[in-house]
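FORM 7B - TANDEM STRUCTURE REPORT

SECTION 1: FIRST PROTEIN
SEQUENCE AND TOKENS:
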Amino acid sequence: MSIGTAFHERTAPLNVKQQWREWSGYYAASAYADHHDIEYNAIREAVALIDVSPLYKYLVSGPDAVRFVDRIITRDATKIRPGQVVYTSWCDEEGKVVDDGTVTNLGDGTFRWTAAEPNLRWLRMNGRSLDVEVEELSERLAALAVQGPRSRPLLEDVTGEAWDDLGYFRERRARVGRIDIDVTRTGYTGDLGYELWVDAGRAVELWDALTAAGKAHGARPVGMLALDVARIEAGLILIDVDYTSSRHALIAEQTYSPFELGILGRFTSFTKEADYVGRGALEAEAAAGGPARRLVGLSIDWDEFERLHLSYGLTPEVPASASRTAVPLYEGRRQVGRATSVTWSPTLKRNVALASVLAPYEPVGTRLEIEWTVEARRRRIRAEVAPLPFFDPPRKRA
């Protein structure tokens, strides 16, 4: 049975159509507005308040905390400075991704670890023989993503301090009135934004402060449908959609190495000293020329999309929401991959997708065909491999 997050007391009355979905045992709003386009516009033009409390959260502490993190993640944990956040993956012994998330050096000898799925047992298993403690924070720590071009002015209003000096993927503590918060310059929208971490018992007070100050900035609550569109535009992957955790895979083809998942491959180190879980398998994969599949972006041809609809006497209709259903990709008669996440981009004014393709089809500009269903009939339209991310505004890092 799902339960409400620490913000539910405030978010539930705002969800007038009661559009909920389940996220790790919590209610997560699909949309608050009549249509999620309004909420998407808040992400790209104003400021969005997104309840991300259902993330799994762990606190790593103890004399061997750095050694422990370095034993598991594919990045070099010894280089994570106090006040720095890194995005990373961690793998099983075969070099296949278990999960992806963030690790924050809180500056007091501890690390905050976030994950999409429960990882407590996995983490503790890998901490054996080390003087380290892994504590579950998921229920005690609420999290609110404050995203969009007006997120910084809003944060400055509620804290009374400047935030233009907090770098991308950096962290520092602050106060909103009498509420202690931890702020990271992170998010899942590909835009300027922050994530606010607060004791669950103070979550409602924080929400009230942000919404009161947010009226001047066009702030509004935003649900998962709008977030899905934004994260695809930003080229950000989603577990169980763009890849499967190796813990849930039923066959070998359902497992993925970091090098099959775009940026996770670039965040995999072979120069760090630690012999992290899966390193040997990943080094062998790289020595053999890399994995057979690669993550790419796709730009779907509008002219063919339009002609396909007109052939049925229909006006072209873009998908109402992002699709998480994989569809085949072809080169001639051969299937060479699958599109895993597909959406209409309101900002770019085109259909785009994240896809897993065979390595020879990875280069930007490669022409493929994507399966598209109209009037219950499967057809194909042209698509072209495009650079990721699709949307990458300078303000994100400014």
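SECTION 2: SECOND PROTEIN
SEQUENCE AND TOKENS:
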Amino acid sequence: MKQLLRLVAVVPFLPLLASANPLWKGDFETGNTSQWTREQSVSASRLQVVTDVVREGRYALKATVHQGDDPINGSGNRNELLYLSQETQGDEYFYKWSTLFPNGYPSADSWQVFTQWHQEGCCGSPPLEFFVRGEQMNMRVGGVNGPILWKAPIDRGNWHDFVLHVKWSPNPKEGFVELYHNGTLVVPKTFGANQFGSDKNYLKQGLYRDASIGPEASVYHDGFVMGTSLEDVMPAGTQQTPAADAGSAQTPAPDAGTTPPSTLTQPGQGTPTPVSTLVPGSTNSDVMNGGAQGQGCSATGGAAGMPALAAAGLFTTALFRRRRPALAKNVTRR
């Protein structure tokens, strides 16, 4: 009888539980970079898994670039991890990750890419990239001639939490992006081409910058998750901390009638602002982010599902809690 009562007490709560099944995690909780497909780096010291500056869990990545670091004999200097996610036309995914620029991160009037989805083709700016120029982070969609949809200060010493929702397509009427930064919707659903013809896309994260930049630089990444729903990349029932994003270059409105996730803060609704159209199969000029980056594109990256159990109201710590200062404010330069 006691066992029956226990069962009755538990059953009413079962509908509250929701399983999250990410397609892939690149959060470094293995203690190394084995979750990623491969790396492009001049030495192991340039892509270090660390424990002293983390956003979640026990581990994060510290990516460092010195002037002259060119592991693939391409343009620019880089040390990056690759995940061959092979996004195909019509695929729709959610991506979550965090990035921190430490005190001492150099300011340069040129490009410094920290996360990008690159085309399988050899060269040119990628169809979707996050980069720093001067004191601003930027998100560009559509290659070097595409619009910058979002800007915000790099805010050294504090974590930036991103949730990116993308439908991949070279068709400007089908492809779209949607971006949350620190729990606030900063780019409502915005339509435009985000693939080049039939080229599949793949993920690169680390640091890649103009070869003319001299000072050493490091950036931290943590918590990358890829899934097919918002629940795949963040626990259900978590509450978001609204954060104003100064310096936004564009604030397009979402689709009329679209209901963004209730756990995130969003502006008013209206008509979507289209992204400029790309010509299918075009190769963009090597102005912003070129170089021979297509190495190993024919390989298939492994996707390991890692189920997570979430329940509304059971999580007391928000995924996008108020940004906390880095544990190490200064990064020692080599």
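SECTION 3: OBSERVATIONS ON SECOND PROTEIN
The first strand starts at residue 17 and ends at 20.
The CA atoms of residues 21 and 307 lie 5 Å apart.

SECTION 4: SIGNATURE
Preparer initials: ____
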